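Protein fold
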Amino acid sequence: MANDTGRVCFLMHLKPERVEDYLAAHETVWPEMLEALTACGWRNYSLFLHKEDGLVVGYLETDDFDRARAEMDRTDVNARWQATMAGFFAEETAPDQTMMQLQEYFHLA
C-alpha cells in the first residue's frame, strides 16, 4: 500500500499464551537488528501491545515503506530475527510477512 506521508502503522497478532515471552525477547533487541532497521530507513519505530488478545500495533516513519521492507528482507539478521520471533505469532509464516498495513485517513500535526 503506497503511503506518501512517511508514517506507517500496521497490525500483527501474537499467540495470547506467548505474549510475555515476546515482551521478554524485546527487552534486548539485537544491536545488529537495530542497526539494520536504521540502515534500511526505519525511523521513529514503536511497537504497542494489547496484552489481552495479543494485538501488536506497529508505527514507524520511512521515506518508502516498500523499499524499507525489501531492504530488510535482504539482510541476514532479519532472517534470523524473524525465525526467532515466528513462534510467538498466530500466523504460520514469518512475522514480518503478516503485517497488515493500515490506511492513514487523518493526521493532526
Q: What stands out?
A: The helical segments are 19-25, 31-39, 65-73, 76-85. The chain has a mean pLDDT of 94.
